[in-house]
Amino acid sequence: MQEASLIAGKDLRIERRSRVTAEQILPFGLVVLLLFAFALDPDRGVLRDVAPGLFWVTVLLAALLAVSRSFALEAENGARDGLRLSGLDPAAIFLGKAAAVAVELLALEAVLSVGVIVLFDVALGSVAPIVLTALLATVGVASTGTLYGVLAASSGARETLVPVLLFPVVSPVLLAATRAWEAAIDGVPSEAWPWIGLLAVFAVLYTSIGTLAFGSLLEEA
């Protein structure tokens, strides 16, 4: 875990200095939400009903930028070779990079949640399922994105290959997170728990696959 913390700290320090998430990815997410609000504003009821789905679609779009940014950091000045030769456990590198992406996404989701409440006039019914859904969905998306990000890292078309690979795989996360949020917002958390269970299985599955496969994928990148 110490090695994973080193990798996560490195990526987060670079991000804090470059401010790409704060100055580019976050405004992108807010603009997407604003466009959805403009498109559906004549019918506020429909806007409230579709708010969970629009929120998670926005998060997935922003996650693509965060994942691409995570591997772009090692694409310059031979940094990826340095990472391979560092002697760090590949599983720790995977966990560290996924953790850094997850932290960035959680910060993004916190701001976007406020945007959804303000723009879409959404009232939160049950907070605990909403928070737990966000945590598990974020872990699943960050793990999957890190796994497919290194898979696409060696390709010259990395920016376009990542969404092609990632979107079909994370579609269960989009479905489960949307359904869980709908149930929580409607004040019936009992209907959210089966979807939260699916998110937990997805997060554990792809985190496990990533820790096992990341080393060989990094060698080929």
What does this structure look like?
With 221 residues, the protein is mostly helical. It is 84% helix and 0% strand. Helix 1 (2-18) crosses helix 5 (90-120) and helix 2 (20-40) packs parallel to helix 5 (90-120).
Short description:
The protein is mainly alpha-helical.
Q: What is Rg?
A: 18 Å
The level of helicity is over 70%
Structural class, from secondary structure content?
Answer: mainly alpha
Largest sheet, described in full?
A: none
Report the total helices: 8
- The residue ranges in which pLDDT falls below 50 over 5 or more consecutive positions are none
Approximate shape: globular
How far apart lie the N and C ends?
Answer: 24 Å
Spell the H/E element sequence.
HHHHHHHH
Mean pLDDT: 82
**What's the β-strand tally?**
0
Q: How much strand?
A: under 5%
Task: List key phrases describing it.
221 residues; mainly alpha; 8 helices; 84% helix; 0% strand; globular
List the helices and strands and how they pair.
Layout: H1 2-18, H2 20-40, H3 44-72, H4 79-84, H5 90-120, H6 127-152, H7 158-185, H8 193-220
